[in-house]
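Extended Data, panel c. Modelled sequence:
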Amino acid sequence: MATTMYFEETIKDQGGVKEMDLEIGRSSYYPEDSIYIVVDGKGVTMDIKTAKKFVDAVQAVGRYHNLID
């Protein structure tokens, strides 16, 4: 299994009270190479259809906040 991690952080809530550990990357554990996500130690590898929806949603919110072009 090959993985490449692209993001790993403990994310703190703007209010400073809550936090979560988040890791996102790619994995070839399954026959279909795809995105994996781990939140507070609980992880999944998405199928390609779900990965596309996830990426589209993250890009949409990024565009809304003018974080990406």
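Strands lie at 3-12, 19-27, 34-39, 42-45. This feature is highlighted in the accompanying rendering.
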